[in-house]
Design a protein that fits this description.
The protein is mostly helical and about 100 residues long. The protein contains four helices and no strands. The longest helix has 25 residues. The radius of gyration is 21 Å and the shape is flat.
Length: about 100
């Protein structure tokens, strides 16, 4: 088995910074959108829902890019994402049921 080197010995490979900059600009755009929404929209459930949605998008992108989950096998990806869906369902259920304590009294 022969090992081939793509560059000559002693030569330092050029870093691929384009991927890092693309990730930076995507995260910056989502964060800028969050700031615009924070200062433009009135407080309410729609604003909170948008923030939660954008936070989930950013979290997914961070996990996919920085933890390299996007490049893993599908079974590992689903073993991480499926429990996350149950946690989100649990949080939504607790928030919805938590408000019912005021209507019972």
């Amino acid at each position: 088995m022969e090992h081939t080197v793509s560059h000559t010995p002693g030569e330092i490979a050029k870093p691929n910074t384009a991927h890092i900059w693309r990730t930076f600009w995507i995260m910056a755009a989502i964060t800028a959108l969050e700031f615009v929404i924070a200062f433009v929209m009135a407080s309410g459930p729609l604003k909170v829902s948008i923030f939660v949605g954008l936070t989930i998008v950013k979290a997914f992108y961070i996990v996919a890019e920085f933890m390299h989950l996007k490049y893993e096998v599908k079974a590992l990806m689903f073993s991480i994402l499926l429990p996350l869906l149950f946690v989100i369902w649990f949080l939504v259920a607790m928030i919805a049921e938590g408000g019912s304590i005021y209507s019972v009294r």
